[in-house]
Amino acid sequence: MNLFGRILKLIGVLVLAGTSYVFYGFVSAEGRLKEVCSQIKRGMNVPELRDFGKKHGLGPQPSGESGVHYMVESRTFGRYGCAVTLEAGIVKSADYNLAD
């Protein structure tokens, strides 16, 4: 096989691998994020929540002390994530959220 054919084959394999990675991220996102959101416990403070978000690839980090904050997974381009309700810097609830 000539060099051009090998390069085309390599490009094809790389495109297939990248597409598979993105596709798997979307297919498994619901179960994965439901599990992650259930691990956010009532009573966590904002610094603990920020550390949790960094550990699990969620962003953006909550900037305020009160209100609803959406922490989404960048792998799914922000479509799947957690809706976290804060009150006076303490987590009151965290639920799975799908931006559809």
Write the layout of secondary structure elements.
Layout lengths: L2 H25 L1 H10 L7 H10 L2 E2 L7 E7 L6 E8 L2 E9 L2
Quick tags:
4-stranded antiparallel β-sheet; 100 residues; alpha+beta; 3 helices
Sum this structure up briefly:
With 100 residues, this protein is of the alpha+beta class. The protein has one domain (3-98). The protein is built from three helices and four strands.
Percent of residues in helices comes to 40-55%
Total of DSSP H or I helical runs spanning 4+ residues: 3
What Rg do the Cα atoms give? 18 Å
**Amino-to-carboxy terminus distance:** 47 Å
Number of strands: 4
Query: Averaging pLDDT over every residue, what do you get?
Result: 92
Strand content: 25-35%
